[in-house]
Amino acid sequence: MFRNPTAFFTALLLAGALPFAPGCKRTTAGTGGPTSAARTRHVFLAPPGQPLKLAFVSNNASDFWKQAEAGVDAYSKESGVQVVFKKPNSTNLLAEQNGILEDLLTQGYNGIAISPWSPAEQTRELNRAAAQTNLICADSDCPKSNRLEYIGTNNYEAGKKLGEQIVKLLPKGGKMAVFVGTFSADNARQRLQGIQDVIAGHNIDIVAKKEDSHDAIKQRANPEDVINNTSLGVNLLCGLWSYNGGEIAAAIRASGKQGQLIEVCFDDDKDTLKAIEEGIISCTVVQKPYLFGYDSAKLLHDLAVKGQSALPANDVMDLGVEVVDAENVKAYQQKIGKMFDAVKPKK
Is 293 part of any domain? Predict the structure, then answer.
């Protein structure tokens, strides 16, 4: 019936077969930086007659990005435009991501979407890229840069959503620990701020904040250290990035304190969803990474061929979030499975 995967995916959205439609509004929610009204956004038209080259650069190689890559791939196949997906996977993600960005600029790419590893440290590199090509941010924003658009989640609102769940899970108050790759990333900082603003006044204290710098050993060691440090008296552990959920769950499982410690997190990593089924993780707040990829690729394509007229009026495209818990995790997994089926090549 459907001749391309994106047509099928769109039909699923419209039919309500996937959970994304209700939250997929393009809002004007800001991310704390200058808006389109406060600065000039210059769009680069691609030279006529030359094949377009577009790219999406993630900030790591975690499973979270599989959905975004599927979205990029779907748009690439639909449009016939080359859209490559680059995933840094070294021990120095900041340097590697900057290197990938430099390589793409050297190769004359007509548009680049990037999820900055450390926006505060990359503003100069992003501005240099924005002076040469159409640059947008996805998932993690750098609002102080000259990027044209941010596509993803209003992470402050996502943090508030998880904060509401934490208040429900700790009705009498308690102590919690927070884990992430780096707090310098805007998405991590904004999620944490949203959580803090909601839990304020509920006798809930954050007694530990742990970064792992995307180091595999620290990802597991950090929650283990907090769990073993009984003097902290932690009741709840919170992961801010996709892989944190599974790593915290593994630490809880290994400690034998399943049922004693509460865990909440973000995103739908397969280990996270499994731990929800097991009752280790109480809930996770999920984003729309497929659309991060698809919408980013489409916007880059439109900007390259249509120019300034394709630029959205506002410089933030918020795709919304939802809460997944034990009650809806099975249904959510089935819906995600249909999404991936829609983009798989036919045999």
Answer: yes
Domain encompassing residue 106: 18-153+288-320
Q: What is the CATH number of the domain that holds 93?
A: 3.40.50.2300
For residue 183, give the 3-state DSSP assignment: coil
Same domain, 146 and 161: no
Mean pLDDT of 224-244: 97
The residue count of the chain comes to 347
Average pLDDT estimate for 52-71: 93
- The closest alpha carbon to 220, from 246, 247, 242, belongs to 247
CB 117 within 8 A of CB 97: yes
CA distance 301 to 128: 20
Same domain, 69 and 195: no
Note the pLDDT tens digit of each residue in 140-171.
899 999 999 999 999 999 999 999 999 999 99
CA distance 258 to 255: 8
- How many domains is the chain partitioned into structurally? 2
Average pLDDT along the chain: 88
Is residue 290 within 8 A of residue 320, CB to CB? The reply is: no
- Residue 339 maps to a domain: no
Clarify whether residues 206 and 237 are in a common domain: yes
Q: Is residue 341 part of a domain?
A: no
Which long-range contacts does 88-92 make (Cβ < 8 Å, 24+ apart)? Answer: 88/57, 88/58, 88/59, 88/60, 88/61, 88/117, 89/60, 89/61, 91/215
* One domain, residues 224 and 274: yes
- Whether 134 has a pLDDT exceeding 50, the answer reads yes
